[in-house]
């Protein structure tokens, strides 16, 4: 797609000559005969470069420049001036104009100046991408590897064995399991053992952003694509070039974006928001979910063709309550993070943790250990009393609810209402208690007819906010 240029000049003959010269150089050129006409054009549609005379009837070049700078799409501005006007043009460059050119030799010099301005613009955009990649690579110093995954139970050995086998390939992997079972840790380890390990590992939480922002986050956007898009922004697929994109909570992906992700998986191409150029995506995709995607397909909430593209190599991570033999080594690991040893834990406390059902899985165990260490003090023994007094019933034990004759839908309704009550109406906290995203909570509240209500108690959790 050709770069778009607006030429603002009140002398029609000169304006037409400049139009012809730049068109022959391969640009898409529009003209405005005067400053007022230029301002109208600038407000009507985006341009990459604006070439404006300094002195015109109506709005002058300075006003045209300032109007251009006020636009969200932030075009480059080249000012045309006579010898006597150069001081004003230099001042405009200090305020952000890209260049100025003296009219005496304009037809010969302007195409070169325009090309230089556009090349500088492109370099700034590429610099933004590189900056993002450098930040991502810096974070990868702390990526997990397979030897840092703790657990010797049969389910954990099976999962780790599958992950180690698929890691050197380029196959898409779908990690399945409850919230807190270590899906992102496995994704990091798969990337670290892959042929793409020297390139970025870029995680995206699909449930953490509203639909409008999620598309821009994944695919990037062009300057002026929407209100607030003041510059071109690379997306996660662009930042991850040559590496791995980890799509967490893939079950929360809106259907409009599911279609676009399917194109990435099928054709390895995507388009930035507000753009037209097809871009290549040289990335491996790992995805994770705690949802039943097959059930969502039956409900029409998840695309079947996308599911089969993602589900090339599924790996299921079982809940911690199903591999209790892994609790002691995990406890020891989390105690070491708090600068404590297993010897600081009383036998009663360890026995309690062995029998605890861990609805929040490994993440909950880590939080329980941290809390207990704080309560016990730096030198004190960690005792049973430093852990919650009530032990929740295993999630797989339905006896209480079945005895009441409750359906699955009624159970979910009750759980949502209880979580909202415990969180005192705060949707973010309630979603965290349930192990789902806030967007999923709103969706399920709506399906159960539970009022979403007004503002949150802390004012930070209205629908659509990130």
Automatic annotation (TrEMBL):
Keywords: ATP-binding, DNA-binding, Nucleotide-binding, Phosphoprotein, Transcription, Transcription regulation. GO terms for biological process: phosphorelay signal transduction system; regulation of DNA-templated transcription. Residues 149-374 form the Sigma-54 factor interaction domain. Residues 447-466 are annotated as: Disordered. InterPro entries: AAA+_ATPase (IPR003593), AAA_lid_NorR (IPR058031), CheY-like_superfamily (IPR011006), Homeodomain-like_sf (IPR009057), HTH_Fis (IPR002197), P-loop_NTPase (IPR027417), Sig_transdc_resp-reg_receiver (IPR001789), Sigma_54_int (IPR002078). The keyword ATP-binding applies. GO terms for molecular function: ATP binding; sequence-specific DNA binding. PROSITE patterns: RESPONSE_REGULATORY (PS50110), SIGMA54_INTERACT_1 (PS00675), SIGMA54_INTERACT_2 (PS00676), SIGMA54_INTERACT_3 (PS00688), SIGMA54_INTERACT_4 (PS50045). The modification 4-aspartylphosphate is found at residue 53. Pfam families: AAA_lid_14 (PF25601), HTH_8 (PF02954), Response_reg (PF00072), Sigma54_activat (PF00158). Residues 4-118 form the Response regulatory domain. This is Sigma-54-dependent Fis family transcriptional regulator. It comes from Eiseniibacteriota bacterium.
């Amino acid at each position: 797609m050709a770069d778009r240029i607006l030429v603002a000049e009140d002398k029609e003959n000169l304006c037409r000559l400049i139009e012809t010269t730049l068109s022959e150089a391969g640009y898409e050129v529009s003209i405005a005969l005067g400053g007022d006409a230029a301002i109208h054009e600038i407000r009507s549609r985006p341009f990459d470069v604006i070439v404006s005379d300094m002195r015109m009837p109506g709005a002058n070049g300075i006003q045209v420049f300032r109007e251009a700078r006020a636009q969200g799409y932030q075009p480059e501005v080249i000012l045309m001036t006579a010898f006597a006007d150069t001081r004003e043009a230099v001042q405009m460059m200090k305020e952000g104009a890209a260049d100025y050119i003296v009219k005496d030799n304009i037809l010969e010099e302007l195409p070169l100046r325009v090309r230089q301005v556009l090349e500088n613009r492109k370099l700034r955009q590429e610099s933004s991408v590189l900056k993002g990649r450098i930040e991502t690579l810096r974070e990868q110093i702390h990526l997990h590897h397979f030897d840092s995954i703790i657990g010797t139970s049969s389910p954990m050995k099976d999962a780790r064995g599958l992950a180690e086998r698929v890691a050197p390939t380029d196959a898409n992997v779908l990690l399945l399991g409850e919230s807190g079972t270590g899906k992102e840790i496995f994704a990091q380890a798969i990337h670290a053992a892959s042929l793409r390990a020297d390139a970025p590992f870029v995680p995206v939480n699909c449930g953490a952003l509203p639909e409008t922002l999620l598309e821009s986050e994944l695919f990037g956007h062009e300057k002026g694509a929407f209100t607030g898009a003041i510059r071109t922004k690379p997306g996660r697929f662009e930042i991850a070039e040559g590496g791995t994109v980890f799509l967490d909570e893939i079950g929360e992906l809106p259907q409009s974006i599911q279609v676009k992700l399917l194109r990435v998986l099928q054709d390895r191409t995507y388009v930035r928001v507000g753009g037209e150029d097809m871009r290549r995506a040289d990335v491996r995709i790992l995805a994770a979910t705690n949802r039943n995607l097959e059930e969502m397909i039956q409900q029409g909430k998840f695309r079947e063709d996308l599911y089969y593209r993602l589900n090339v190599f599924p790996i299921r991570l079982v809940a911690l309550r199903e591999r209790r033999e892994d609790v002691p080594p995990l406890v020891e690991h989390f105690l070491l993070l708090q600068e404590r040893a297993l010897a600081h834990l009383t036998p009663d406390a360890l026995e309690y943790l062995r029998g605890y059902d861990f609805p929040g899985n490994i993440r909950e165990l880590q939080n329980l250990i941290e809390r207990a260490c704080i309560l016990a003090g730096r030198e004190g023994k960690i005792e049973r009393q430093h852990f919650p007094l009530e032990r929740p019933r295993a999630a797989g034990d339905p006896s209480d609810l079945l005895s009441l004759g409750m359906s699955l839908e009624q159970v979910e309704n009750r759980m949502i209402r209880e979580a909202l009550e415990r969180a005192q109406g705060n949707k973010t906290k309630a979603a965290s208690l349930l192990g789902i995203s806030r967007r999923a909570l709103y969706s399920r509240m709506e399906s159960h007819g539970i009022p979403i209500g007004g503002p949150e108690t802390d004012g930070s959790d209205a629908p659509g906010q990130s």
